[in-house]
Amino acid sequence: MARWEPLGMSVTPVLDLRGIEKSYGSVKVLHDVCFTAYPGEVTALVGDNGAGKTTLVKCIGGIHPHDRGEYRFEGRPARVGNPRDAAALGIEIVHQDLALCENLDIVQNLFLGRERRRGLTLDEAAMEALAAETLSGLSVRTMGSVRQRISNLSGGQRQTVAIARAVLWDSRLVVLDEPAAALGVAQTQQVLELVRRLADRGLAVVLISHNMNDVFAVSDRIAALYLGRMVAQVRTADVTHRQVVELITSGTGGGLGLRR
Length: 260
Known about the structure:
Layout: E1 15-24, E2 27-37, E3 42-46, H1 53-60, E4 68-73, E5 76-77, H2 83-89, E6 91-94, H3 106-110, E7 117-118, E8 121-122, H4 124-137, H5 155-167, E9 173-177, H6 185-200, E10 204-208, H7 212-218, E11 221-226, E12 229-235, H8 241-250, E13 252-253, E14 256-257
Parallel strand pairs: 3-10, 3-11, 6-9, 9-10
Antiparallel strand pairs: 1-2, 1-4, 4-5, 7-8, 11-12, 13-14
């Protein structure tokens, strides 16, 4: 499959994966996968259950290093053998379970494991100010006090905290795994607007979603996986809802995807 290149642009992708392969024992999960994510764009990664989305994300984040292939970040070869390597590059992944501590407040969750100190004590004032600044920069105005406990927040507000934590550390690439899952209509809209604002700030955003309405509402490009193969990477404006569904379910649709 030919690799997609932005028409009329010479922008270097933040993430450029070439020929990525991954096996677990005798089971090959990813087959020669190419994938790109560009700054200022939302790339929707779609595929049926078992298509390889989770495995690809784990390879991106260094959770499970890939077996073969080239991993390039901002135009340079990169070695990502563990999550710390990924974080050092500026890659943050917001998993579906969010990994928030409900007994802690927003500030404590944002800085968990990365606390700022003044001498031997925590610099609570600096962390609180930076937390408020980050949420304000993302145009989040529904949160109230940054000292609220996570247990008191709605599902949409918790997702917002998880996303804010991802962008707090000078991130270049943010991967969001089903950020609107189990949310109501209003909360889903708020999260999608936040996803769009991340890209508008110049970040490369990878959105994993089964909801085609969400995909078409917020994404600039769509990358479709089918049985461990990347069958298409296309501009969202150039495909229809039906074509994407066909790519997900059969690997081909509307002249795109695998050849019969």
